[in-house]
Amino acid sequence: MATQQKAARRTALITGASAGIGLAFANLLAEQGFDLVLTARRQEQLRQIATKLEKQFGIRTWVIPGDLADLNVPQLIFDATQTHGLAIDMLVNNAGYGLRGSFANTAWQDQAKFIQVMATAVGHLCHLFLPGMVARGYGRIINVASVSGIVPGSPGMTLYGATKSFVIQLSETLHLEYQKNGVHVCASCPGFTHTDFQRNAQIDHITDRRVPKMLWMETDAVARGSIEAVMRGKPRYIPGAVNKLGVILAEKIVPRRVALWAAKAQMKDLLNHTERAIAP
């Protein structure tokens, strides 16, 4: 497979490529022979990753640093690829983070930036790169969503599930619209995954205590399964048997009101911690 990809000189663009699932995507796609465009906020870290992957796999890399909270950055990323004469064959919208806090007590400016990174930038990048994929008759887009976008409620992280639900719906609809043009779009919906996400969102002390070990997955497994899913033309991919079972229960078996109650109970510690954090 690697030899075939190298011969085709496919190029993948990965957002949030400096750590976590994004870094796993970078490693796996480099191993398969993809040239890489890496983007994230941390420029020096991206350059170190790019240098390592070039030496290890003989690929070409381009580093385009940028903060997707800035609404101009998706266009700047696209323009940079055009300047370099790059045709993006695979787009991996992976960048994301968690914004802790109850909705009314979190500044709207912070919520707006969150929506920009988690939803608007995803749609914008798809809109920018899709026409080229359609024109060439080939494209693969992986939008990293979450099971939180399927199961009810994300109390304590109000907009997280909401934005992920948007990403799922967007991905499935784009797949239906453009699969006839040789473009496959897949929403990857992982559950708890060993990354810096929980620590950066300041909820690791809660998830480490309350989330059973059997629910956790590794970044390589999530990225590998997502790549395989989009190549097979699956519009939605849920990594892990336990996560798949949870989604089946939430969508088809457990009544919505019961699922909402369970979501609240599961996140009780986070809600309490949030309220204590914002108390005067």
Rg for CA atoms? 19 Å
Question: If classified by CATH, what would the architecture be?
Answer: 3-Layer(aba) Sandwich
> What would CATH call the class?
Alpha Beta
Number of structural units classed as domains: 1
What is the strand arrangement across the widest sheet?
A: 3-2-1-4-5-6-7
User: Strand tally, please?
Assistant: 7
Structural class per helix/strand content?
alpha/beta
Give the mean pLDDT: 83
Structural features, described:
The chain contains twelve helices and seven strands. It is α/β, with parallel strands linked by helices and 280 residues long. It has a single domain, classed as Rossmann fold. A seven-stranded parallel β-sheet has the order 3-2-1-4-5-6-7, sandwiched between helices. Strand 5, helix 6 and strand 6 form a beta-alpha-beta unit. Helix 4 packs parallel to helix 5. The termini are far apart. The relative contact order is 0.13.
Can you summarize this structure?
With 280 residues, this protein is an alpha/beta fold. The chain has helices at residues 2-8, 20-31, 43-57, 73-83, 108-136, 158-178, 197-200, 204-210, 219-231, 241-253, 256-266, 268-278, and strands at 11-15, 35-39, 61-63, 90-93, 139-144, 183-188, 236-237. Residues 1-7, 197-209, 258-262 and 273-280 have low confidence and may be disordered.
